[in-house]
Specification:
Blueprint lengths: L1 H13 L1 E2 L14 E9 L2 E8 L7 E5 L3 E2 L1 H12 L4 E5 L13 H16 L7 E6 L1 H12 L4 E5 L5 H8 L15 H5 L6 E6 L7 H8 L6 E6 L11 H10 L2
Parallel strand pairs: 1-5, 4-6, 4-7, 7-8, 8-9, 9-10
Antiparallel strand pairs: 2-3, 3-6
Helix pairs in contact: 3-4
Length: about 250
Amino acid sequence: MIGSALYFFQEKILFLPTTLEQDYQYNFKHNFKELYFDTEKDATINALHFKSQNSKGVILYFHGNAGDLSRWGIIAEYFVEKNYDVLIMDYRTYGKSTGKLSEDALYKDAQYCYNYLLKHYSKDQITLYGRSLGTGIASYLASKNQAKQLILETPYYSILDVAEHRFPMFSVKRLLKYHFPTFKYLTKTQCPITIIHGTDDGIVPYTSGEKLSKLDINNLSFITVNGGDHNNLIEFQDYHKTINSKLP
């Protein structure tokens, strides 16, 4: 009975969107342009393109599973303050974005954003950044395209790996509709990869991210933040040191 509930309600567990009215007005400290991408006939993706005054490049940022751009835009401004432009989208059903949600749809929308950036930046100016849920999407994109680098904050080996840790009493492999096999994508990624994970992560186990560091990938750096949880890595000096080194 519980196993059946996991199958039918897994989207409610995995995705925690909040929605915004279409006339909602964003308010941020830095200059930005609000964009709408019609990625499919029945899907429109809302995105924000932040512009720094002295741009060193652009970060294509894929956010976590909760909230919308009114929150994630503020988080993205951390990178704007380092003189990087940022493009960040809301996933389907999040914020002002519309359309049917699926793993393939998330990949398709991510590719659309990457293609948009190619009209304004060269490939070696694009950093792909994923946080939590977004790490699987960023990893997929990195495996299919060229970029300057890939940065993953609190990533998972795969959604299956996290689900088996959380629900060890069920055969979750048969139940999952979403997989996000980050481990497969990273082995096909050519650009430098940086992983940052906290030892006390209560959402994505540290062990799940650590497994990625044991893949046979020469261009991968794994940074451990001792005592770091899922949502507070920015409070640790090791996080800032890593970001400053990768985004000088």
